[in-house]
Structures are given as C-alpha cells and as structure tokens.
Amino acid sequence: MDILSFVGFTALVGIIAWLATRKTNENTSDGYFLGGRSLTAPVIAGSLLLTNLSTEQIVGLNGQAFSEGILVMAWETFAAVAIVITALFLLPRYLKGGLTTVPQFLENRYSKTTRSIASVLFLSGYAVIFLPIVLYSGALAINTMFDIPNKFGVSDGTALWITVWGIGIVGSIYAIFGGLKAVAVSDSINAIGLFTGGLLIPIFGLMAVGDGNVISGITTLMAAAPEKFSIVGSRTSSIPISTIFTGMMLVQIFYWGTNQAIIQRALGAKNLKEGQKGMMLAAFIKILGPILVVLPGIIAYYMFKGQLSNPDQAYPMLVSKVLPTAFIGFFAAVLFGAILSSFNSALNSSVTLFCVDIYKLHINKKASEKIVVKNGKLFGIVLAIISMLIAPLIANAPQGLFGYLQELNGAYSIPILTIIVIGYLTKRVPAIAANIAIISGSLLYIISQYLLKPFVFGPENYPHFLHVMAILFVINIAIMLIIGKYFPRAEAFEQKYTNEVDITPWKHVKLAGIMILVLVVGIYYYFS
C-alpha cells in the first residue's frame, strides 16, 4: 500500500504537469525557459516555495533547530523580507527589460564579459555545490525515513547510490524535457502535498508529546526546554543576533532576488501584477515556514532527549516515529516531490544560463531557437549525470548541512549581488569595475573562509561568515564606486522597456509588503 500510494501520487503529478504543458511551444526560448511568460500568481508562489523548500532545508534546518532551537528561523522569516524587496524593487526592472536570465541585465548594464563571468559563477555553484547537495540530502532523508537499505536488502552505500540516481533521473526528465512550465506546475501540486503532509509531522509530534493534545504538547515543550524558544543567538551560535543586521539580509536578497533558480519563476509571470501577487503570497507563507522546518527539530530534541549522533537525522527519525503507517506512502511521495523540485528547478535554470548566456553568445551565435533548446537539453543531461556522480561522495559532509551549504554559496552570492545592486543604483560605473569586483569578491571570500579562517586565525577567533559577507559587500561596492569615479562610462546607462509583458504594478503591493514586514517584526519581538 505504501508503494502504491507513493507511485500513484507521483504519477498523478507527472500526468497533470504533462496536460498543463502540452500546448506550450517548447521549441522557443520563452516557451522552454519561461513557460511562455504565462505563469499566474498561485503557480509562481507554489513554485517559488517548493523550489526553496527541499530536503537540504527540511532536514538541515530541523537539524539545526534540534541543536539550537528557534533562532534558526531567521532563515525563514527574513526570507519574507527579501521577497518583499524583490517584488517592489527588482522584479519591475527585470520584467521591464524583458529578461530571461539575470546575467542578461549584466550585459546590458556592463558588458558581455561581465555576463559570462556571472553565468560561469552561477553554473559552478549549481554544479559543484547545490545540485549534488540536494541529491545527497534527499537520498539521505528517504533512506533514513523509510529504511531503504533493509527493505531492499542492500548496504547503506548502495542504497544511497540507488536513491540519488532515482531522484536525479526523474528530476532530469521534468527539467530537461518539460521546460519551466512543467517544473512550475509540478511544483505547485507538490507544494500543496508538502504543506499538507509537512503539517502532519509537527501535529502528530506535539500530540505524542502532549498525550494526544497539541496545545499540551506546546506547553510541555516550552516548559521542558525554554532555551530552545529564544530567538536571540549568542556569538557562538550558528546565527548570532548581530548577523541579521549584516550578512543575513544580503544572503536573502541574493537568493530571492538574483538567484536564477528562484527568480526565473517570477520572470515567467504573464505580467508584473501576477508576479508581485505571487511573490507576496510566497512571502506570507514563508513566515509560516518554521512550523515545517524548525518546530519538528525541537520536538525531536524533546523526544530523543537531545541524544543523536547526527542532528541532521532528527527530522527523518521523528517522521518514522510519529507518522501513522497509513500516511507513509503519501508523505514519501510529497517529500520526493520536494527533492525533485529543488533539483529540477536548479537544473532547468542551469540549462537556461548555458543556452542564453554561453551557447548563444560564444559557441553558436547564429543558432536557431530550436537548436539552442536542443543543445541545452544535451547540456542538462551531462550536468545531471555529473551531479549524480558527485552526490554520493558527499557522505562525509560535515554536520549542519544547511549552514554548510550557506557558507559555500558565499563564494559567488555576494559578488553577483554587488554588481547587480550597483548596476541598478548607478548609471556611470563601468564594466571594468564590475569585472574586477566579481572576481576579487569571489577570491577574497575563498581566501577568507578556506585559508585565513582555518589556518591563520582559527575558527574560534574568526568573524561569522555572514559578517564576512557584509564586510566584503562593502569592500566590493567601494572598489566599484572608486573605479566609477575615476573611469566612468562615456554615456549614462538607461534601461529600455521591451514590452514583453505589462509592467503595471499590483495596486495592493505596498500594503501587502508593509503587512508582511510588521508580522516579521512582531514575531521577533514576541520571541525575544
């Protein structure tokens, strides 16, 4: 029955995605990469949330909550703030320029070289860091939660390879052969299942803690472990309270405002109004995210008495303990969908970056759109295979998988964010400034975190990586402004409106943004 419900729900998602996309022309760039610029607010919100919410977050954040408590919810609540900023400031400019990829703006603002450097950085981050970690964390969760090695009579290592390749192959089919619209539609359906199934875990967990009563469960948790309900992180915690005023918001704005795998959903909006509504809906739901990705970790801390060799096992073990057998197949399917979502979304975005920013610009400038899409699919297959080969080798990854992922991402996130911010806020900073800043920013971060921190100063005496990001952000901006002062562009940059979509804003977007910001401040005030 478990297997039948798993296969049935997964097949249903695939059939619905096929029906929804069969009339979309996948042989054009807009059709394949942006779903024909036809995405509406609910689809955008669902795809944004499920692209973001996958096992590296569900498993990783709950693992950190097991160790540290609700202070790690900063990754969720401040995401809502970043989404609001993106909807108000960045999205109107992206849609006005008719962008398919973020690096396209960098060419318009700076040069083709800047665009290519940014695309290579994005692709490197996806291929070496994000895609393998998504596959590994997903396989680890599935294997732990549903005891794959024992069910199939194989070793843990063999089970890991089987699960990684199963996830990778199915995800590749969605991303490579379905295009963005198939990814977005399947994400939206899986989002409903994930939030439904995901809510069952804390509910059943609290009922187990409170002898059948959810409210009693909350009361028991807060009485037994009050330290887990303080949102103020100390200097030695994974998120010191001071970081929310420095690198935390920079990371969030990069992720929600410039990360191709995320912002591509909003770039596919049928108009600015739908894009802003979708993003605001996603921001509101994101505030509720800690119920799914933080609370279960605290419940696991209470139930397992804080004794787990690896905190990242907290969520899978809680699921296997509290979820009734009748729900296991369904939850396996929605969790599988969440894993697929992050994998196929990043893979689809990687194919987009390769086709639009590398193949068309440098390899075959005269290629027809059909040829571009065809070669993009071949690139996607190669990238997927590489990711599936690397993923099982991450078995020795350090504890605290989510924090580890965030620190690695800093090598390309802050340099790219810097040149985009300066690109929109100034008109005469030249291309050479952006090229120097993006390369120096990446090299300085790598030197800081992987040479100075471990070998010169020691991890205990070194600033938190979010503080380092903020420091380098300021340095990069200073470098660009100094170069811009002494070697300005000959002509001021002016963004042109391409008329790809209607950019009339949603009339309630500012009010919705203010309400979300008030909610975030209220949550922090309550738990502080």
For CATH, the homologous superfamily is named as Sodium/glucose cotransporter
| CATH A-level architecture | Up-down Bundle
Class, according to the CATH hierarchy?
Mainly Alpha
- Rounded to an integer in angstroms, the radius of gyration calculated over CA atoms is 22 Å
Helix content: over 70%
Classify the secondary structure makeup into a structural class: mainly alpha
Amino- and carboxy-terminal Cα gap: 46 Å
Number of helices: 22
Residue share in β-strands: under 5%
In this structure, how is the largest beta sheet organized? Answer: none
Q: Describe the global form.
A: globular
Q: Give the strand tally.
A: 0
Overall description:
The relative contact order is 0.19. This protein has helices at 2-21, 29-34, 41-52, 55-68, 74-96, 102-109, 112-146, 148-152, 156-209, 214-224, 247-257, 260-267, 272-287, 290-293, 295-303, 314-322, 325-363, 369-390, 401-425, 431-457, 465-486, 509-527. Helix 4 (55-68) crosses helix 15, helix 7 packs across helix 16 and helix 11 packs across helix 19. It has 528 residues and is mainly alpha-helical. The longest helix has 54 residues, at 156-209. The protein has 22 helices and no strands. It is globular and about 70 Å long. The chain has one domain (2-402, 510-527): Up-down Bundle (Sodium/glucose cotransporter).
